[in-house]
Design brief:
There is one protein chain. The chain is α+β, with helices and mostly antiparallel strands and 415 residues long. It has four domains: 7-40; 43-70 and 267-414, Elongation Factor Tu (Ef-tu), domain 3 (Beta Barrel), CATH 2.40.30; 78-104 and 234-263, Beta Barrel (OB fold (Dihydrolipoamide Acetyltransferase, E2P)); 107-231. It has three helices and 21 strands. The strands form four sheets. Strands 3-12-15-14-13-16 form a six-stranded antiparallel beta barrel. Strands 4-11-9-6 form a four-stranded antiparallel β-sheet, with no helix packed on it. A hairpin with a 3-residue loop joins strand 18 (369-380) and strand 19. Helix 2 (107-168) packs antiparallel against helix 3 (173-231). The two termini are 67 Å apart.
Length: 415
């Protein structure tokens, strides 16, 4: 006959079930971690990359990016508003200095040149005419001055005669005063004439100088037009390769519009950029390493661009070997700016194990196993990391590959 189960027995049964579930979960967890421990604590040596601690130099490097560009690039622009008459070479063609690339229509500039020549001749004739007028005016004024001098002398004699006659009663006092007044007027007229003569001399000299300056300006314009006439025949200013060409025959071009771009593909430089947080560190003259695959090219910063764009600063790197076979136009490369250097320090090859932390735990070979050791790090370059520790010595082997899967372990047994 069934009887009801007491509350105490029900609680005991529920507690037994929960304890059973906890035991199962605990067994599974212990088994999982035990299996993981068994798998992770004994691994093949070939699963890791090892490096040996040594002594040597370490360079501190600022990472940047770079673009390979020709060291020589030149753009030829249209000298005037004109048309493309004919094109001799095509884009991609190699040229030597002086090679003909294209011809422009010279009719308009030729007419302008001839017009300026006519204007120059007119200005020169104006100078000649001004000189002739100058000589004539000066002569006329000089003659008038001489005539006035004679008139003054005559009036002075009349005054003397009037005074003498007045003493003997042959002339009145009014006649003496009139003679004296005429003399004073003549002297003032002579001074006025001399002043006018001096002014004419200075004014004509100034006018002549102005015309001479206009002639000089006109001659400069003619020389400029003459230069542009020579540029109607577009020639290569240096050896190189045509990277771009305006090929539209009959196309109208305005003064200053690009016609041809040339580049020297035998020598290259690097246009680089890095974060603007390094702006106070990047200086002209700093050494630079440029990495192309496994090749390192040495260089130096020769200029820094003044503008900051998209939180980056730009700079130009001139390479020691600008014609290295690895260089190709528009190739992206890694650039490392050498901002510091230490000599004869404890170092090790750089690898994925190094995350940039100042103090880092590395796995060091000790017999048949590797042991986790805390190590202080110094300068870091693309090749080496400085070790600031007494825990390691020259000859120790350290795992430099990524150890993210083994961070929970303190030691690993090697097969």
């Amino acid at each position: 006959m069934d009887r009801p189960i007491s509350n105490t027995e029900q609680r005991k049964n529920n507690l037994s079930k929960w304890l059973w579930y906890v035991a199962i979960v605990g067994i599974v967890g212990v088994g999982f971690f035990g299996l993981r421990y068994a798998l992770k604590t004994k691994v093949e040596k070939s699963d890791f990359v090892f490096a040996t601690v040594e002594r040597g130099n370490v360079e501190n490097a600022i990472t940047a990016t770079g673009l390979v560009v020709p060291s020589f690039e030149q753009q030829i622009n249209a000298p005037i508003n004109t048309e493309i008459k004919n094109v001799v070479l095509k884009s991609g063609a190699k040229v030597k200095m002086g090679d003909l690339i294209m011809n422009l229509d010279e009719e308009f500039i030729q007419l302008e040149y001839e017009g300026l020549q006519d204007q120059l001749e007119l200005k020169k004739n104006n100078i000649i005419r001004l000189v002739l007028e100058y000589d004539k005016n000066l002569n006329d004024l000089d003659y008038q001055d001489q005539i006035m001098a004679l008139k003054v002398s005559n009036l002075e004699a009349n005054l003397v005669d009037a005074k003498r006659l007045a003493k003997v009663g042959g002339a009145t006092e009014e006649e003496v005063k009139k003679a004296d007044l005429n003399l004073k007027i003549a002297k003032l007229e002579k001074k006025q004439l001399e002043n006018d003569l001096n002014f004419r001399k200075k004014a004509v000299t100034s006018d002549k100088r102005n015309l001479e300056l206009e002639v000089m300006i006109q001659e400069k314009k003619i020389r400029e037009i003459s230069r542009k006439l020579k540029e109607i025949v577009v020639k290569a200013p240096a050896d190189g390769v045509i990277t771009w060409l305006s090929e539209g025959i009959g196309k109208k071009v305005t003064e200053g519009e690009p016609l041809v771009r040339l580049a020297n593909l035998d020598n290259f430089r690097i246009e680089s950029s890095c974060s603007d947080r390094y702006s106070s560190l990047v200086k002209i003259g700093m050494s630079v390493n440029v990495r192309i695959n496994q090749t390192i090219l040495k260089g130096i910063i020769t200029s820094i661009l003044p503008a900051v764009e998209n939180n980056t600063i730009g700079f130009i790197v001139e390479l020691e070997d600008g014609n290295a076979v690895q260089l190709r136009p528009n190739m992206r490369v890694e650039v490392f700016i050498i901002s510091g250097k230490k000599e004869n320090v404890l170092r090790i090859k750089n690898g994925a194990a190094f995350t940039g932390a100042i103090v880092q735990k590395l796995f060091v070979v000790r017999g048949e196993e590797v042991v986790k050791v805390a190590v202080s790090l110094g300068l870091t370059s693309m090749d080496y990391v400085e070790l600031l520790t007494t825990e390691l010595k020259v000859g120790d082997k350290v795992i430099v590959s990524s150890m993210s899967d083994f961070e929970h372990l303190d030691r690993i047994e090697l097969k």
